[in-house]
């Protein structure tokens, strides 16, 4: 052994390889392995692992061996295994199994063009299925996988794997030995320690597996060979090895046995105890089986799971692994129960199972051989059996049914999910599903399992206090039913699609009915009248299985309803629980369960939510529809009325014995509404009654679109689904028919709208179904929204022209499947006809009936007439012309009519109602016996006064209690009103007028005037006009309220109810009349605005308690005793009404005119151009339509309609009616005139208000003319001091030194200017290594300035060079304003108030932030307004005649600069403004010197002005061309069309400061500018800082001196910067700030002319440095000998000759010539015209930046409009003339840049002086002078964001695994800076610097506090602005114009050009703070 080790790893491996090649039992190898793999050694020893790798290689290096083995990889499948968060693809076009997935490489290599695919982030892990024909079609395979891809692969040499075959079993044994030692550590989490220790060993096995199919075959052979396992594990004494090894193996086996026993097995039924996968004792026969055991025992460690799955491409191994997994499957459920982290364990279990069970043939073999289905169901049952509790439905004492406890961890943590997921997976295979439904025992177990969910999570209605703690179990219950019941149900149903499987359906239905009957017996539900009003469970899986399988058998398998229907007595019991669920659903919506908290509403919403509705509410409704058609109609309707608690409401007598106190009075009407809605839904819904799938898809899409416009993904997500069945194939086709696509647009405000689908007009006119909307609307407001949208459409389209709102267009349902009876047969019942009579009677006679209830009643009657068979009872038609009047007994709806004949019942007149008289009532008068009765909301009687004073609106109801009540006589002038005295829950007195409607049937109930009963002494009519509206409302209710009736208030006296209260009311006498009825236990009437009644109560505070709308306070009531007496004869209340007469009256009532129905009219008056059968109209329209249908029903009905009209409105009254119409017309005219007068007054007031506001705005614009002018035409400055209006106090005052005013501003730091680039092409975001190397980050203005500063600081004194440049390219201060003004004192008070607020609206008040009080824009400072801003008088003492005189005057002004400290309030404000600007940027950008000096501060101050001017220029397109070409920005701004594919389709330029995006103008520049006040603030501080002779600089520039000239030689002590190296723009700003603010314009022009001279010479000198020696010689010779003349510096030739002549004496040109080749040779010394033009164009180009800035300054300072420049070619000429550098006209052919030269003195002398300074410097530092001169002036192009690729996948594939440049790890949220392309770690702590995360720090370094990042993993843009951050949105949208945040849908994304353009414009205009509203404080954590 030692000799082997001495050979070394390579030598020993070669020896072993030779031994293995010649012998089948290499003894020397085993001896070596016994030493290397000794179990006493640590398994992670590196030397051992390295030895194993070398031995495997057989004499080669491990890398060489791996490379050779991979050549023989002939695997037909990919099999790449991944873990959670891996990005993979799924192609539904290619997939056979829904679980199919592909890795990125295989997907990209395959052909999936035009397929339905998506990218997804794996949640549990997975494996690539490429090449697996059982999972996907071969058309989707990549070229490397599939059966055909490996045809020509060569076989593996026999000697290549010989060592591996011998070594691999020993390696696996060593791993098994290590696993068996898991209890050594004694730690509770010892399995984690074991896996961690074996990490290196497992890594080695992973590397072996990655070598390909050849090595995997060796590994799988070792794992699956039973003999190898037996030989190595069960070693005996005869086996080789030491005794120590024997002892170890014996101990190892004991530990193994102990571990096996610690993993229990669910106890199976007796008949399945012999099943191998359910046996109690586990027996392992292979390494693989034991490996799977340890995998389960260690809770599926990720490394082991991946190792096992990596070898799945081997089919034999896959089957062996599946068998081993099934053998341990029942034990997995036990592990799930005990797991600390069940979610992670569940994901890992599914990671394995989904790979094994997705193969149909393999899954079926497991079912056949190992009873997989039985194992799954038994495991599920066993898991749930541990958490059973007694069911509490009905009587708990008689209920012996047990259900799951929804509060247990198993339910809350979804521990059952892996088992259910696997069951659904295997049931998706047809053979497995058929096997499942063919096994009766399996079905019996399954329904026993479902019974555990039947009736779970029972809710009990809280009747007392509000529930203290809301349970959170409902979500667990709904999830459990969906996943454990509904998913398998739909999976089974998908295989029952034809008659061949009808027997399977019968089996399921039979077993289901047995389970249902057992459940009914278990809960002791034997009678349908059992009370269950206070409890409900939404979970009835057995009912839903019955419903769904019945529907499937009838629709697809040809069975009749009788074949599948349960017995009638059982069906009646089955009906009750789904009906109770429906009733409870409506109770919850009506607010009856409000004390149960929000969770009960959550249950109701979940019940109809899109993921649940098909499996719950639709199944329940189908079952109820079956019951409605099969059970007696009278019984069904009576049950419905009783369960909805409206039996009492269906009474018409004035006195009823209140036998059911379940409902509060306020819930009566909502429950009637609910009952009718439920009936309408039963009648209308055809979801399961035969509608086609295409029609159903259309209905669902229309329903979603009617509630709101939707995106494509929202439609897909909200479409009801059948639990994994996938989306309908006709979805896209149907969507295109009913919806129009609205492309994504950008609004002017910057808001981004996604692509939306809106309903087409045909939807509103023909397809909009309000009933289905109510069925699917999770929120009730969704229905109202749909009605608002419907109303808006019909009004805009001219389909409806009524004054009110249209009624819902309820649709007539289509036909049913022939196997079903039409549910509308229920509407032919006499009970239903009686119900409709009651509703109509109450609606006509002023009861509290909402118009929605009326609409539903009319709709139900319409369906009854529509579905009636008019000639079915021909004999009755012939026998009777009119039914006799009928007296009915109250309380029995079944007895109202004699038959179910609709025609007869419509005509039958109900003459009266027999009413049982009241019992005698005796009250105790003892005060001690008065007790409290607490109702829904507790309160006190102190609210009585407030309640009594209410009129109209929400009033109070007072009860009357006493032994006698006098009758009241109501003055006849108040019309025909009945007076009702209502007592909540107790006694009530109803007083009716003698001429009540029932005594005068011919008269309509008057609605002109009503009574309000108040607490007072007088009676007046209740005003009905207070609730009216002067015009149409913005959002009308779906159904407007009915006309107002009597108001219910408190008191014993009656007063007029007026809008002004009780004052001024007149007294009305009341006399006693004998007409009233006493009603004990009456329902309290709550007044809801428009529905008012009258209540009277005696003036006794101890007996009167108010009750507000929607609630009742604590009620005082004396105890009463009912004394039995002799029976009284029933009283008869007259009615004399029929349904037809009620319809006619209701038509007149809603129309507002008697006899309004005209059967000859074709349509309603309120409907425009509508047919009689149109579904668009108001109440009279639909009632008229119903009456016409009734008339068409049979001749008797037609005659009855005519006769009833004549009876109600006889011809004798025509004249009276005409008089009444005339009176009504006059009254209407009077009201109209009053309304017009009121409107006129309002218009006058609005006009005056508008004039006032316009005056203020005009004044504000005038105030801004001199300092914050708009970009529009501005008025000239006034010579007087302007006034400003403070937006806080509103005062209009001057700004003074004592009380200064200021303009609101926002100060921000920005590095926009620093991102200007030399190149015209937009920089590209790298998506490859080549592009990343080509990305230039040093071609920006910021990097150029840094290099220039370094050069200047090395050569010149810091105090001097800082005066020659400007900072601000990075981190510069930008100031913008909204234009509003305020007093500084007012601002101080405003900030103090903000500081005192607890919630500061996301403001940092301590940093001075506030919102402008007017426009609410973010601001953080104020610029003081100097009193001098309005003065325009020149400060020049005399008007100089020529340029040199002006220059002398400027020198004097600069020499006389003095600035004394200002101690006034204005001075303090100026100092505070400067302090705010200093604090607005970061320290690194404030100064370039080590310590602050007056020079460095002066540089900072002047740079602020430069920054604002430059930013304004950038916002104008980097040019002053007012009409740029449509292809892009001009003059230095690259075209968008030629750039990043952003063509004119996405946006175009219109002007210089506005762009068109989606045809919407988006302004780039601010509406108002604050340059002038900003310059004033900067000027004050500049003068304070001045400590050097600035006038001396101007003397050198102009060439004139106040005193005799001194030598200007550059000395080494001063190190002064030569003028030719200074920045002319920086010098200009210095002079402007140091001179008085309002200098004469001639002085400004003089400064510009002098600086232009300097600029021209600088540019010419720079160009000479780029010439060759020959070229310079030509220019030098062209003007030789003419330099002494005054005109010598007035042309390009003369300037070039001077410069070249002086500089060629130095070595500057020699340095340049080393880098240039001679371009021209010969003796020709004349400059060509082409060369001259080229130089001229370059000079103009390089001079333009200076001229643009000067033009902007002139524009702001002197309020002069910018020139109108129409083309880039004319910009230079236009600016030269605008700046008065050239004043005389000339031919453009002779025009050049030199004509703008203006020399105050001799140009030659001045030029020679400038060049002389430079020559001295060049001689001192030639290289530095060259570096500065060569790039002194550069054409910088407009800043732009990086160019992005069109496809987002290009970015994602390159970056989502990209490493960070700093920490070299792959960030979880990798982000890219769109300014420079840098990759940063978002929200990671790995790259923190000074506790600041990388993205925040980069936003400072790169953007001066502004960062724009694309988050690769979510496609979102994150914007960082200073201390805030926001989620801006997405610039990549899918093909439907939608964002895909977090890539959840994974659809292909494409660049939205308009959005990306908008993002760039907001960056350039520095307007993120104004355009984005949702900011968060990032706290340096991004």
Give a verbal description of the structure.
There is one protein chain. By secondary structure, the protein is an alpha+beta fold. The chain has 70 helices and 42 strands. The chain has a six-stranded antiparallel sheet with strand order 36-35-37-38-39-42. A three-stranded mixed sheet has the order 13-14-24. A hairpin with a 5-residue loop joins strand 35 and strand 36 (1879-1881). The two termini are 60 Å apart.
Mind telling me the C-alpha Rg? 46 Å
How confident is the prediction overall: mean pLDDT? 78
| Low-pLDDT ranges | 236-241, 655-659, 872-881, 921-1123, 1163-1168, 1259-1279, 1524-1563, 1608-1614, 1680-1686, 1715-1723
* Residue share in β-strands: 5-15%
Number of helices: 70
Oligomer: single chain
- Gross morphology is flat
Q: Identify the strand order in the major beta sheet.
A: 36-35-37-38-39-42
Helix content: 40-55%
Structural class: alpha+beta
Separation of termini?
Answer: 60 Å
Number of strands: 42
Please outline the major beta sheet.
Answer: 6 strands, antiparallel
């Amino acid at each position: 052994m030692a000799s082997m080790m001495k050979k070394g790893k390579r030598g020993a491996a070669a020896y072993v390889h030779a031994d293995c090649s010649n012998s089948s039992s290499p003894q020397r190898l085993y001896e070596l392995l016994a030493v290397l793999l000794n179990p006493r050694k640590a398994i992670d020893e590196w030397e051992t692992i390295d030895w194993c790798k070398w031995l495997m290689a057989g004499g080669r290096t491990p890398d060489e061996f791996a490379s050779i083995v991979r050549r023989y990889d002939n695997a037909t499948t990919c099999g790449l295994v991944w873990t959670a968060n891996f990005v993979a693809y799924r192609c539904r076009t290619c997939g056979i199994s829904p679980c199919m997935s592909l890795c990125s490489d295989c997907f990209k290599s395959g052909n999936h063009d035009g397929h339905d695919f998506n990218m997804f982030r794996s949640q549990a892990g997975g494996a690539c299925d490429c090449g697996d024909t059982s999972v996907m079609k071969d058309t989707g395979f990549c070229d490397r996988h599939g059966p055909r891809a490996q045809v020509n692969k060569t076989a593996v040499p026999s000697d290549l794997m010989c060592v591996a075959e011998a070594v691999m079993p020993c390696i696996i044994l060593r791993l098994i030995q290590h696993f068996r030692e898991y209890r050594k550590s004694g730690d509770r989490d010892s399995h984690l320690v074991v896996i961690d220790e074996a990490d290196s060993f497992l890594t080695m096995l992973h590397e072996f597996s990655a070598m390909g199919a050849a090595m995997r075959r060796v590994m799988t052979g070792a794992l699956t060979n039973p003999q190898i396992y037996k030989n190595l594990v069960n070693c005996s004494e005869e086996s080789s090895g030491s005794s120590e090894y024997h002892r170890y193996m014996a101990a190892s086996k004991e530990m193994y046995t102990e571990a096996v026993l610690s993993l229990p097995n669910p106890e199976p039924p007796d008949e399945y105890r012999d099943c191998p996968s359910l046996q109690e004792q586990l027996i392992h026969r292979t390494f693989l089986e034991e490996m799977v055991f340890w995998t389960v025992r260690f809770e599926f460690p990720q490394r082991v799971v991946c190792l096992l799955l990596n070898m799945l491409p081997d089919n034999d191994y896959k089957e062996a692994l599946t068998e081993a997994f099934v053998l341990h499957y029942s034990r997995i459920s036990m592990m799930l129960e005990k797991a600390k982290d069940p979610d992670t364990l569940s994901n890992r279990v599914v990671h394995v199972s989904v790979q094994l069970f997705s193969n149909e043939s393999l899954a079926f073999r497991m079912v056949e051989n190992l009873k997989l289905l039985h194992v799954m169901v038994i495991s599920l049952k066993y898991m749930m059996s541990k958490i059973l509790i007694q069911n509490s439905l009905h009587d708990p004492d008689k209920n012996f049914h047990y259900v799951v406890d929804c509060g247990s961890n198993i339910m809350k943590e979804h521990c059952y999910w892996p088992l259910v997921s696997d069951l659904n997976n295997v049931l998706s295979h047809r053979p497995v599903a058929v096997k499942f439904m063919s096994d009766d025992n399996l079905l019996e177990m399954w329904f026993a399992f479902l019974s555990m969910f039947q009736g779970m999570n029972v809710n009990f209605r809280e009747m007392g206090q509000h529930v203290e703690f809301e349970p959170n179990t409902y979500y667990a219950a709904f999830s459990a039913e969906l996943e454990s019941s509904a998913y398998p149900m739909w999976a089974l149903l998908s295989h029952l699609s034809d008659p061949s499987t009808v027997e399977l359906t019968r089996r399921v239905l039979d077993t289901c009915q047995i389970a249902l009957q057992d459940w009914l017996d278990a809960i002791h539900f034997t009678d349908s009248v059992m009370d269950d009003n206070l409890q409900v469970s939404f979970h009835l899986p057995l009912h839903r299985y019955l419903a769904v399988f019945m529907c499937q058998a009838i629709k697809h398998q040809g069975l009749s309803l009788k074949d599948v229907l349960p017995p009638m007595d059982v069906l009646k019991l089955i009906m009750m629980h789904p009906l109770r669920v429906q009733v409870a659903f409506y109770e919850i919506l009506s607010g009856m369960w409000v004390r149960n908290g929000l969770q009960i509403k959550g249950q109701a919403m979940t019940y109809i939510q899109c993921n649940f509705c098909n499996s719950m509410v639709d199944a329940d409704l189908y079952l109820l529809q079956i019951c409605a058609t099969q059970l007696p109609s009278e019984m069904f309707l009576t049950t419905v009325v009783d369960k909805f608690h409206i039996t009492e409401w269906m009474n018409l007598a004035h006195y009823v014995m209140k036998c059911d106190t379940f409902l509060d009075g306020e819930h009566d009407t909502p429950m009637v509404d609910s009952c009718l809605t439920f009936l309408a839904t039963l009648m209308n819904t055809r979801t399961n009654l035969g509608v086609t799938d295409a029609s159903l898809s259309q209905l669902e899409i229309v329903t979603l679109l009617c509630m709101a416009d939707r995106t494509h993904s929202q439609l897909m997500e909200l479409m009801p689904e059948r639990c994994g069945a996938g989306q309908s194939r006709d979805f896209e086709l149907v969507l295109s028919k009913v919806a129009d696509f609205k492309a994504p647009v950008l609004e002017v405000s910057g808001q981004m709208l996604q692509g939306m689908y809106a309903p087409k007009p045909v939807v509103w006119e023909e397809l909009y179904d309000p009933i289905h909307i109510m069925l699917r609307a999770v929120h009730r407001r969704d229905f109202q929204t749909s009605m608002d949208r419907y109303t808006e459409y019909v009004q805009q389209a001219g389909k409806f022209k009524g004054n009110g709102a249209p009624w819902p267009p309820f649709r007539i349902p289509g036909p049913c499947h022939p196997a079903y009876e039409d549910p509308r047969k229920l509407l032919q019942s006499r009970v239903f006809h009686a119900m409709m009579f009651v509703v109509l009677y109450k609606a006509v006679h002023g009861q509290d009936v909402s118009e929605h209830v009326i609409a539903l009643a009319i709709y139900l009657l319409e369906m009854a007439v529509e579905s009636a068979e008019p000639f079915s009872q021909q004999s009755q038609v012939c026998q009777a012309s009119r039914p006799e009047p009928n007296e009915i007994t109250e309380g029995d709806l079944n007895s109202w009519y004699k038959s179910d004949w609709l025609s007869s019942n419509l005509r039958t007149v109900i003459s009266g109602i027999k009413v049982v008289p009241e019992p005698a009532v005796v009250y105790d008068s003892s005060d001690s016996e008065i007790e409290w009765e607490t109702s829904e909301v507790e309160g006190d009687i102190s609210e009585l006064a407030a309640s009594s004073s209410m009129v109209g609106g929400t009033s109070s109801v007072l009860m009357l209690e006493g032994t006698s009540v006098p009758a009241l006589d109501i003055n006849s002038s108040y019309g025909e009103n009945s007076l009702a005295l209502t007592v909540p829950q107790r006694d009530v007195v109803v007083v009716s007028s003698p001429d009540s409607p029932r005594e005068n049937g011919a008269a309509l109930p008057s609605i002109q005037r009503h009574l309000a009963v108040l607490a007072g002494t007088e009676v007046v009519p209740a005003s009905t006009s207070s609730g009216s509206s002067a015009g149409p409302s913005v959002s009308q209710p779906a159904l407007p309220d009915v006309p107002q009736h009597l108001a219910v208030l408190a008191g014993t006296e009656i007063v007029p109810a007026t809008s002004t209260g009780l004052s001024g009311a007149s007294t009305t006498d009341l006399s006693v009349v004998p007409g009233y009825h006493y009603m004990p236990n009456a329902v309290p009437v709550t007044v809801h605005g428009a529905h008012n009644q009258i209540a009277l109560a005696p003036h006794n505070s101890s007996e009167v308690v108010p009750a507000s709308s929607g609630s009742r306070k604590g009620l005082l009531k004396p105890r009463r005793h009912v004394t039995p007496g002799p029976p009284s004869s029933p009283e008869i209340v007259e009615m004399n009404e029929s349904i037809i007469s009620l319809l006619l009256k209701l038509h007149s009532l809603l129309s507002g005119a008697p006899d309004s129905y005209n059967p000859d009219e074709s349509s309603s008056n309120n409907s425009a151009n509508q047919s009689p059968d149109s579904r668009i109209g108001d109440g009279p329209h639909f009632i008229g339509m119903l009456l016409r249908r009734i008339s068409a029903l049979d001749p008797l009905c037609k005659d009855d309609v005519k006769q009833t009209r004549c009876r109600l409105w006889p011809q004798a009254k025509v004249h009276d009616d005409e008089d009444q119409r005339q009176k009504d017309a006059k009254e209407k005219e009077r009201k109209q005139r009053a309304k017009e007068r009121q409107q006129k007054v309002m218009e006058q007031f609005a006009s005056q208000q508008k004039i006032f506001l316009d005056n203020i705005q005009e004044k504000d614009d005038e105030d801004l003319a001199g300092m914050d002018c708009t970009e529009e035409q501005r008025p000239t400055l006034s010579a007087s001091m302007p006034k400003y209006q403070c937006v806080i106090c509103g005062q209009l005052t001057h700004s003074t030194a004592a009380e200064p005013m200021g303009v609101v501003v926002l100060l921000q730091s920005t590095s926009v200017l620093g991102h200007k680039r030399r190149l015209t092409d937009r920089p590209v975001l790298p998506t490859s290594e080549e592009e990343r190397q080509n990305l230039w980050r040093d071609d920006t203005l910021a990097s150029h300035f840094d290099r220039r500063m370094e050069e200047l600081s090395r050569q010149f004194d810091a105090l001097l060079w800082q005066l020659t440049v400007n900072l601000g390219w990075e981190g510069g201060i930008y100031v913008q304003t909204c234009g509003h003004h305020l007093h500084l004192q007012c601002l101080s008070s405003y900030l103090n108030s903000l500081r005192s607020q607890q919630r500061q609206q996301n403001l940092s008040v301590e940093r001075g932030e506030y919102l402008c009080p007017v426009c609410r824009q973010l601001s953080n400072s104020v610029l003081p307004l100097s009193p001098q801003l309005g003065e325009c008088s020149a400060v020049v003492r005399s008007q100089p005649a020529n340029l040199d005189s002006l220059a002398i005057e400027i020198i004097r002004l600069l020499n006389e600069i003095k600035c004394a400290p200002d101690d006034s309030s204005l001075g303090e404000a100026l100092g505070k403004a400067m302090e705010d600007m200093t604090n607005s940027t970061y320290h690194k950008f404030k100064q370039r010197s080590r310590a602050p000096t007056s020079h460095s501060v002066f540089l900072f101050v002047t740079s602020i002005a430069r920054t604002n001017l430059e930013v304004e220029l950038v916002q104008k397109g980097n040019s002053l061309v007012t009409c740029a070409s449509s292809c892009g920005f001009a003059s230095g701004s690259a075209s968008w069309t030629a750039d990043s594919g952003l063509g004119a389709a996405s946006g175009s330029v219109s002007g210089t400061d506005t762009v068109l995006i989606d045809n919407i103008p988006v302004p780039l520049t601010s509406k108002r500018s604050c340059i002038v006040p900003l310059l004033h603030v900067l000027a004050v501080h500049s003068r304070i800082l001045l400590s050097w002779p600035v006038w001396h600089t101007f003397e050198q520039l102009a060439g004139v001196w106040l005193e005799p000239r001194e030598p200007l030689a550059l000395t080494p002590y001063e190190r002064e910067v030569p003028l030719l190296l200074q920045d002319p723009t920086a010098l200009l700003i210095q002079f402007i700030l140091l001179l008085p603010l309002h200098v004469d314009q001639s002085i400004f022009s003089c400064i510009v002319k002098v600086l232009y001279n300097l600029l021209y010479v600088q540019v010419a000198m720079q160009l000479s440095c780029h010439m060759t020696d020959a070229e310079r010689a030509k220019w030098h010779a062209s003007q030789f000998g003419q330099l002494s003349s005054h005109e010598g510096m007035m042309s390009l030739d003369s300037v070039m000759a001077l410069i070249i002549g002086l500089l060629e004496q130095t070595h500057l040109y020699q340095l340049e010539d080393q880098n240039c080749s001679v371009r021209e040779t010969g003796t020709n010394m004349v400059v060509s015209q082409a060369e001259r033009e080229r130089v001229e164009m370059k000079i103009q180009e390089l001079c333009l930046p200076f001229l643009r800035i000067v033009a902007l300054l002139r524009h702001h300072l002197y309020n002069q409009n910018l020139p109108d420049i129409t083309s880039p070619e004319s910009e230079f000429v236009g600016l030269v003339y605008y700046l008065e550098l050239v004043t005389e006209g000339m031919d453009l052919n002779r025009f050049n840049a030199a004509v703008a030269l203006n020399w105050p003195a001799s140009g030659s002398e001045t030029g020679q002086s400038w060049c002389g300074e430079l020559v001295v410097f060049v001689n001192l530092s030639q290289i530095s002078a060259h570096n500065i001169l060569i790039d002194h002036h550069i054409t910088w192009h407009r800043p732009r964001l990086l160019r992005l690729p069109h496809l987002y996948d290009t970015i994602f594939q390159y970056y989502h695994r990209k490493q960070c440049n700093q920490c070299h790890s792959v960030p979880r949220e990798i982000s890219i800076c769109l300014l420079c392309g840098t990759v940063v770690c978002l929200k990671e702590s790995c790259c923190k610097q000074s506790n600041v995360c990388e993205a925040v720090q980069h936003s400072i370094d790169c953007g001066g506090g502004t960062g724009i990042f694309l988050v690769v993993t979510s496609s979102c843009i994150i914007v960082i602005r200073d201390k805030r951050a926001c989620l801006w949105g997405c610039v990549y949208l899918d093909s439907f114009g939608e964002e895909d945040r977090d890539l959840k849908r994974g659809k292909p994304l494409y660049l939205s050009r308009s959005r990306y353009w908008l993002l760039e414009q907001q960056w350039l205009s520095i307007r993120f703070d104004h355009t984005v509203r949702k900011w968060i404080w990032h706290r340096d954590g991004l």
